[in-house]
Amino acid sequence: MGISSLGMNNIYTPRQQRILLIASLLILGGFIIYGLGQYVSGILGAGILFVVFRPWFHYLVHKRRWNRVVATIGLMIFAFFVIILPFLVLSIMLVDRIQYYSRNTDQILGLVQKLEKLTRIRITDQNNIRSLVQQGATWASRQFPSVLSGLLDFIVIIGLLFFAMYFLFMEEEKFIKGLRRYLPFFPNTVDELSEDLKNMVNANVVGQALVSIVQGVLTGLTLWIFGVPDAAFWGTVGFFMAFIPVLGTPLVWGPAGIITISQGNTTNGVGILLVGIIVIVNIDNLLRIMLAKRMGDVHPFVTLAGIIIGVPIFGILGLVIGPLLLSYFMVLMKVFERQNRRIHQEAVNVRNEEAAESVTGGPGVKPDATP
């Protein structure tokens, strides 16, 4: 008995078979993603770096005629030393200082007491502040990649990232062809989607990273010039805070200025606040306007909502991945809307043609003009 004859006895209709097949694919895909768990960030990171470095790859391989393997390995080395390693060092330094302050809460309590004297407002009980600081330090430490406590996980994530990045570049044509084949969109829609996603990556990753670096450096320099202790640490905090729209670095230099005034250094405190309001904030706005014109604009609400979604899932990497995923969702919704509009317009055109044919008596037949 052949397979075709067995198919005649199948209890499912073709439509039900199609629905069950799609459901099976979604369930298996969900199990795969769940199994990867914390390593998903490595795969997503490889995709982000692929989009960021693809123009460089095209320039080196297709214009300068570099060997594909050499160009790919070169980009991987550049990504490690320029992006991943500095980010890791900043994270370790920040976690170390956070843990220090969580163990030595007397310094923070002293600052709170000075603020209470300055504002004449009692903030809260000291025991509550100590508990809040320790809980906040524990939460913050969990969001950063820890080499000491999770060395194996860190190696697997980085290894997976570079493994995926290597094969994305080495088999670029096959990967793009596969996307065009399996994505449920029209060919021209895929081109629009690719351009939109590239702009989103540039705006969320490259643009935001540049703004955060400048903001972190300016914050650290300002605090150092006006004699604030641990200026490098607070500059690093400013770098990560700059990813948060609207609030950002004012969460760092604002309290620093107020605390400095409460310590009796009114000139330095006012100087920090003036530099923050006049220089840091305006440079931040100017950079965002310039980058929005060149790389694409992302609404602050999208960034903030993406951070809220991404940080609990991906840790500190959620500052980048969260807004990016939310932006991708919005792009896909726009693509879905355009594609449905096109299908609807094609259906309307077909109905109009059929109506015209019914009036003329068939295709190509002109109506009789005589009365």
TrEMBL record:
The keyword Membrane applies. InterPro entries: AI-2E-like (IPR002549). Coiled coil: none annotated. Its main location: membrane. It is found in: Membrane. Keywords: Membrane, Transmembrane, Transmembrane helix. The chain crosses the membrane at residues 20-37, 73-95, 147-169, 205-226, 232-253, 265-283, 303-332. It comes from the Bacteria. It holds the Pfam family AI-2E_transport. It is a multi-pass membrane protein. Belongs to the autoinducer-2 exporter (AI-2E) (TC 2.A.86) family. This is AI-2E family transporter.
